[in-house]
């Protein structure tokens, strides 16, 4: 009885979105029970052993107990064979895969449309959960033969988050070494700060309200690829081709524009003075006393910090829910990047920040 009770948590809700996670968990569960081979059995008739029959019966019963929707129930119920008239686990498993892991062109396009129409509209939804959903769709499309690169995924993420994430988006857009994990981390960090101040309240993200829309499907043919079910503006083949062309053009332009002369600032070959790192470093030092900076503060406390250092005209007002923090000089900052982002204050006045970076702030 205790075995069945613990098993009941592995249930399938009868949706394509839920099948990937459920099937992985079910395989792991049956593997733990020593029954995984019953899902892809190849021997039959006289080749079946008593152990095969026992494993099939147990695996089939677990599948039957796990399905909660009518469609999946009927699929498992009808999965019988001459060798197993009471229920064939292998036949049931393959039938479930055919139903919930379709690979026809129309299903591929449906999933593609779902991916590109997915947006994070609700501030109360954890962005990390939303990105995980996108990664699952990316993986499923890859299984169907349509690859969405990580760069395409990151671009989609940064263009489909609420305006409250704009400062983080600007910073990540300039980061040439960003990864999916770093994008997740920065957006989640911003969300945690908003949550800490009560700006957002965590909610169930099972369906991510607003992330996907149900719309009437276009019944004509695509003017780009000729296939039925989508318009040229939504054609994944076209979007993929345009993305590849942009990458090729960018690579080609970089090769054509590569400077082979000597820098007038540091004397090294391969870059101009305007691109010289040492020159930029010197310029930063010269501007340090006047530069206005936006900070992504690495916060060490849960409370707002207000402090004033004697002899230096620098007042700290740390607000963990604010979109950005301001600093008068570059002293102590790191991971600096150029920016021209406007910052608006409560009195509606604006300043243009010249740098964005990180700064470790401590309070006693």
From TrEMBL:
UniProt GO MF annotations: nucleic acid binding; zinc ion binding
Q: Provide the species name.
A: Nitzschia inconspicua
Protein name (record): Gag-polypeptide of LTR copia-type
Classification from the root reads:
Eukaryota, Sar, Stramenopiles, Ochrophyta, Bacillariophyta
Q: Which PANTHER family match?
A: CCHC-TYPE DOMAIN-CONTAINING PROTEIN, PTHR47481
Q: Which SMART domains match?
A: ZnF_C2HC
Q: What are the entry keywords?
A: Metal-binding, Zinc, Zinc-finger
Cross-referenced Pfam families: Retrotran_gag_2
> Locate the CCHC-type domain: which residues?
222-235, 262-276
Keyword tRNA-binding present in the record's keywords: the answer is no
Q: Does the keyword Zinc-finger apply?
A: yes
